[in-house]
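Async update (no meeting this week)

Hi team, since we skipped the sync, here's where things stand on the single-chain job. The sequence we agreed to prioritize is pasted below, unchanged from the tracker. I ran it this morning and attached the output directly underneath so nobody has to dig for it. Comments welcome in thread, and please keep replies under the output.
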Amino acid sequence: MELQPLQTEYIPLKPKLTERLGRRIRQTYRYDSAFWRIALAGPWGAAMFVFALAALGMPTGLGALADIIVFISLGTVGLFITAHMAAVLLAVLGLPLPRLYAGVVMYALTVIFFIFWQDHDAVISAAASGILTLAGIAAGIVISLLYSRIGRRLRFYAAAALGLLCVLTALWIADSPVARSDMAAKHAEPIPAENPAKPGSYGYTRFDYGSGKDYWRKEFGRETDLITPPVDASAYIKKWPAFRTRYWGFDQSALPLNGRVWMPEGNGPFPLVLMVHGNHLMEDFSDEGYGYLGELLASRGFIAVSVDENYLNYSVWTGIPDNDMKVRAWILLKHLQQIDKFAEDQATPFYQKVNFDQIGLIGHSRGGQAVAMTKDAGRWFSEDETLSNLERYNIQAVIAISPTDKKVDGGLARIRDVSYLAIQGARDADVIDFDGDRQYIRTSFTKPSPHFKASIYIADANHSQFNTEWGFRDISYPKGIFLSQSEIMGPKEQREIAKIYVSAFLESTLHGEQSYRALFQDYRSGLHWLPAGTEYFNRFESANFYKLAWYDDDLNRVTLPDGGLARGEKLTWVEEEVKNRKAVSKGTRGVTLEWAAREDGAPASYSLTWNASFLPGAMTKTPEVLSFSLADRSFELSDPTASTAELEVEVELLSTNDESARILLSDHAEITRPPDIAFTIHPWVEKRLSNGKYKHPQEAVFQTVLLPLSEFKKMNERLDLSSLKEITFYLSGGPGKIMLDDIGIYE
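Output:
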């Protein structure tokens, strides 16, 4: 038997797990060719762009450029560490792909998502992360393809340009120009006076007062002109983080009184006007943003002071002090007391220059609520022993620019026997509701006087541009990138409107210049001053107004004060709450009239009737003007596009001798529909950003109509204006929907 040779089969031993992992880790970057290493500049750029946006929304006080550089540097370090860790992990898993590049992409996706993830906008954050990262990937691939085709010098320039891309883009976003709408408006008789926005005849001086210890701003620190002692607000503020103390150098027990002053030259005394900002980012100082108003007012004979309350503002790093809203008003009162002391000191420029019987207050945003609270100080500070002799300070005028209106200690400011003006932009993406209208409603007059209240609602104005330091976006970055800027008017024009209305209002109320009063009764009288290309809505009521119907007296839609009755024909009519765009009550009621188009063309009607003359017994003269407030709510119809282009309203008066006269409203007034606002860049974003804050595009805004009774007399000489008993509104065309309120007359 032949023996076969013994054969041994060689079976290689499987390497140990540690050896296999070691080999994979050593080969981590085997797929990251030069192409992919260059291409990672794209997702890096996308991530750093968002870091730059975050820097603008999270200021440190070092300045925008320094913040952007710091954030991008930290973001790049984080990317370097994270991307390499991700690459190693992918290598351990054995995935055959450019792992370092994949790590950079994953980093970009993750950080962009979390930077945008505010107010639980997870869907928007995911969309933004995906879109920006994909854009970065595409840009990186293009860069890599181009890189191999250009010379070494051009490569250097390309790299430098890429490095500056995020910084320059972010800075451009912070201050880019915007377009405007171009809507025409009918004209009324122009006011025969000079433009109130033009400088006056006074020269003026600029100086500051402050603590002398502010190390962020030399004008309130070592170079301040007048030293002020601190004030203790610890009775109101209990939460003041240690970091806030380190940033400012003081806590709530030693708040400084800092002010920028524009003072007219001359003997005086001059009216005093305090201006105060709202809640902006603490590190991005706000008080300098009203210099354009300070200069104008000083040239017209007002002492203007811009009050510093930045230390009460929100910070990403420390939040906001508790009770800040009350303290904002408290600080204003403390400034009045301090200026009073200055006015008695011969060594200060205030000496014998201040007329404390003529004081005006201007507030923006939360400052707009603070000035109303300051006028109604007794509601919150009656037990504060440090606020004595407040009756010495006679506040005659209050201006609220885009004000907030929130309850403080369960109460709201109620202004009595003082002139009030609210200014609001319809494209305000911060205070999106017309809260100034709520303050207007609560402003009342207990006796006849020269005082009046007014509001101006500007179709294309926003929130921030009333302050020169706040940029043009109403919410901070990164979310601010989602706001649409295409229809917002330019900053110069928006501030021109503020100058016209603020100056005219203070001239009327503190200087007694009555020629400007017409501007608040009908904005069209000032169209030769006002910027074109936007729409205006104004409301007005003076202390000499006799109300006939105001719908807050009872819940019965038929009964009227003084025994009058209401009736409606061919329409649906109901008394209901006046509400803002979020369907929250403004604290008053009106009557809503809704009618459909009729084939026979017969108009619908709403009548107010009394058995005898409705003229108040207190009237000593024949009435001259019929006034009412009207809001076009046709946008609420089931098919708003079916409503007529303009309201077809006629107003008829009937006197006790059964003579009547009717005039067409459009011949004497212009009722404009509220603008349809797109706050964000896309309807999909509109419904989701900030929990749907922007999903209501329109708000019904009242407009005051003043109809001279002489126009009715022209239609029928037999109409007895001294004995009127009925008012009827005829509503033609349709379908339509309006709300009426504050119907009455003037002598």
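Quick observations from my side:
The radius of gyration is 33 Å.
The first strand starts at residue 204 and ends at 210.
Reply here if anything looks off.
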